[in-house]
Amino acid sequence: MKIVVAVKRVADPNVKVRALADSSGVDLANVKMTMNPFDEIAVEEAVRLKEAGRADEVVVVSIGSEKSAETLRTALAMGADRGILIRTEAVVEPLAVAKLLKAVAEAERPDIIITGKQAIDDDANQTGQMLSALLGWGQGTFASKLVVGDKAIEVTREIDGGLQTVSLQLPALVTADLRLNEPRYASLPNIMKAKKKPIDERTPADYGASIEPRLIVVRVHEPANRKAGIKVGSVGELVERLHREAGVL
Amino acid sequence: MTILVLAEHQDTLLDEATAKVVSAAGRMGGEIHVLVAGSGCRAAAEAAARLTGVAKVLLADEPSLSNRLAEPVAALVVSRAGSYGAVLAPSTTNGKNIMPRVAALLDVMQVSDVIAIDGPDLFQRPIYAGNVIQTVRSVDAKTVLTIRASAFPAAPVAAAAAPIEAVAMPDNPGVSTFIGSALSRSERPELAGARIVVSGGRALASAENFDTVLAPLADTLGAAIGASRAAVDAGYVSNDLQVGQTGKIIAPDLYIACGISGAIQHLAGMKDSRVIVAINKDPDAPIFQVADYGLVADLFEAVPELHTAVAAKAGA
Amino acid sequence: MIHADDGILSQEQRLMRDSCRSFVDDVVTPFIRSNWQREWDMSPGERLPGSILEGAEAIGVRTLGVPEEFGGIDLERETEVRTFALIAEEIARGDSGLADKLVQNWKVSIVIRQFAASHLQEKWFPRLLKDPKFLLAHCLTEPRGASDRWLPYNVPEASMHTKAVLDGDHWVINGRKQFISNGFDASLYVVYANTDPSVGMLQGTSSFLVPRETRGLTVTKCNETMGCRFMNNGELVFEDCRIPADHLLVKSTALASAGQYFRAGKIIQAAKNLGVGVACFERTADYVQNYVQGGRILIKHQAVALRLADMATRIEAVRSLVERASKAVDEAHPDADILCNMAKVYASEEIMKVATHALELHGGNGAMLEFGIEKLFRDAAIFLHMDATVDVSRMKIIKTMFPATAGKYAGPEN
């Protein structure tokens, strides 16, 4: 069984990203970058399936600048076998990512594709669903548990109000939610060993997919700060003001 | 332009999120149709028909739609999408699951989690956990949107009901099967959609105090309970109650922060609340910078007192 | 700013740094913050839970310096010291005592891989790798002093009191070692002892490999220190301690031959300081941007902002020197000895100032044990003395810069 995992390089979740002064985008100069946390969970799950003997090979794919090779290298240090870097400096929207990954899937013929449920930069939460639609596969989004069989996979999904379990015919697509696993750290010895694992470099043109954007970013701004209100002197005053002024009681 | 809204519902009940998406659709201009897809869901369709602004309800009542699996629902939406200029759904887990599939099948780039509609093709949406707002213009022939329901008012109930038209389910792609579900049951409203939220921080000092100090106030107000990350990390409440950048992002009508200092990460999860009340004994706590009403007091005295006052008001 | 510039690091170094930082942010810092009492537990074995060392093991930071053939890490030798510095800084950013525990293993592993007979490497490296609690220690300092004692006077009278005498096929060690990092916990020691009382320390000191269970070796106490308390500093007594002759690592010139160890050690020491400084800065920057005084967050008060700028400037200056010095050590530059001592002394003094600012900017909170800032202050303070005092470091700098004059025995001019 082969598993393909898609990973994205994003700004570190602990960084407070700011809008550029000219509102054209966000300021990522000197911002620490890391693997999208949900993608780390996706890699971890694939590596665990390999370690459990369910999968033979884990291939990681990333789309982005040459720096995305570092994100792939992290995945290789976590235990993936080889990487594919689709190099482009352009902003690639989820739909275009899905089209490129579809082409990768047609070449690699994996049994399972795992992606993170969303990238924490654009917060779109689309790529996995779009990819499975384009492939005509079933999708197990927001997964918190996987049970992999020979012909099908059971995915427990985090939905509003609880959990839902679905069975998907293989090949299938899974998007990883927070509770699927706790990803390992890439250990120092494995980082050195990952240096020897192969990364195949491609371009979007190799896959014949258009990455022309469909959304034009008109403006990027920071939400207005809320202003401090008043201090009340007592609980009684608070209740009174909530009732009469604010109308929420 | 005619707009199709995919309803969020529990078959017999229509979720308020649907009414909010209908009002969002109203800002795009055009006739609004609502698609209710489910099994035994006529009651939800009837409720949708009575929302102001809805011209027609499409009812797909099929056993195969009972659990809103993405593959059949997306196939259904795509089969109806031809005559619509826009397809909208709330960014609930169902909406997030189904709509990108719809968008890809229509070869459209979806706009996710829209918080403001500035025109038929101009949308605002949060990125980077809401630290930044992006305004985008879609150049696709159709638009596919998920809507952050808490950012829009609910469409009110209309006097007259719109017609309900039954629609047929296309072939189920058949790649997925429902196995089961386990839904958590709580008497309290769900944190994400609650009108009032009472939230506690590390100052609560124990799990018991959440139950004995916060819960009575929450229950009297019909409120959900939330918590800061510090309280979650200390093990006072479970993960799913965490409000903040890495937890739930909510915008209730009233948010009461008790013993929460107001770290930036927490503010990211609640600063869009309509009215914020902060109760904290540290007069310099950053939470007061965003609170509409601040009360400098020991929460262990003020919260029970507030509970008594609210209960008296409810009884009066 | 404040952190190392990605541009000067290799891809592997960046990934290693990131792994260490995640480990520190996810595991070490939360433990230290919520268990601040633990460092004051008077049972040394109870202070740092095994899970932290196991976590360090999981990211592979306990066994740097062990050759790859024994299952260690194949670091690029030409940038090894820079990598050590990078990782020591990251771990110390979480806890300098933990960093100290781990770096002793790296430093002593270098000595063993360089000087121990291959059958001893084959015996001990696998044991080190197998047991997450296996620690190494380097025993140099004695109750009567260390480099402060012999550096000015390389004469027989200033030699080490611990002596080793060859008796048949065994060396017999007698003496006492004090202030030994990991001394209380280590499983294997490198011990320095006088083997020729007729010459100066630089010519008459040998080094030996001594397993903890060797008869005649007693670990007498755990020293209660002001900082780095998660590293158990110990005292050892040798009474007719017999070790096989092949456990001799370097005969007579052990101190001179240990140059590689000492240089890496100074860099690692400075890097740990840097980690403490970065922690001071991060904690303080966060505090002054959230804590409100007089209706404004602290950072908007100019006196606060200026101090924060001073902290940042000192950290950057230390970082620049540490980077230059570690590069010099990696490249065996002729000035490496001078530079690594400069880095050590400068880092310890500057980060002490950074920690003082941190303490002050936190107001009363800075003095509270549960707030964790005074811990950083104590950890910074102990570094002034660790691995040579600042004054001895300065003497080494001058003696190395001017070997013909300052470097000579400090007697009357002739």
What does the secondary structure layout of this molecule look like, with pairings?
The complex is a heterotrimer of chains A (about 250), B (about 325) and C (about 425).
Chain A: E1 2-7, E2 9-11, E3 18-19, E4 26-27, E5 33-35, H1 37-51, E6 57-64, H2 68-78, E7 82-87, H3 94-108, E8 112-116, H4 127-135, E9 138-148, E10 152-159, E11 162-169, E12 172-176, H5 188-194, E13 199-202, E14 215-221, E15 230-232, H6 235-244
Parallel strand pairs in A: 1-6, 1-8, 6-7, 7-13, 8-12, 9-12
Antiparallel strand pairs in A: 2-5, 3-4, 9-10, 10-11
Chain B: E1 2-6, H1 16-26, E2 31-38, H2 42-49, E3 54-61, H3 70-81, E4 86-90, H4 93-105, E5 111-114, E6 116-119, E7 122-127, E8 132-138, E9 143-147, E10 164-166, E11 176-183, E12 196-200, H5 207-221, E13 224-227, H6 229-233, E14 254-258, H7 264-270, E15 275-280, E16 293-296, H8 299-315
Parallel strand pairs in B: 1-2, 1-4, 2-3, 3-10, 4-9, 5-9, 12-13, 12-14, 14-15, 15-16
Antiparallel strand pairs in B: 6-7, 7-8
Chain C: H1 11-34, H2 50-58, H3 80-94, H4 96-115, H5 118-130, E1 136-139, H6 147-150, E2 163-167, E3 170-180, E4 188-194, H7 201-204, E5 205-211, E6 217-222, E7 234-244, E8 248-250, H8 254-257, H9 259-290, E9 292-293, E10 296-297, H10 302-330, H11 336-361, H12 363-366, H13 373-383, H14 390-401
Parallel strand pairs in C: 1-4
Antiparallel strand pairs in C: 2-3, 3-7, 4-5, 5-8, 6-7, 9-10
Helix pairs in contact in C: 1-3, 3-4, 3-9, 3-10, 4-9, 9-10, 9-11, 9-13, 10-11, 11-13, 11-14
Strand order of the largest sheet of chain B: 5-9-4-1-2-3-10
CATH superfamily of the largest domain in chain B: HUPs
Which second-level CATH architecture of the largest domain in chain B applies?
3-Layer(aba) Sandwich
Largest interface (CB within 8 Å) is between:
A-B, 75 and 84 residues
Low-pLDDT residue spans of chain B: none
Q: What is the H level of CATH, i.e. the homologous superfamily of chain A?
A: HUPs
Distance between the termini of chain A: 58 Å
Q: What's the rounded overall pLDDT mean of chain A?
A: 95
Pfam families (chain A): ETF
GO biological process, one term (chain A): carboxylic acid catabolic process
Function (chain A): May play a role in a redox process involved in nitrogen fixation.
Cofactor (chain A): AMP
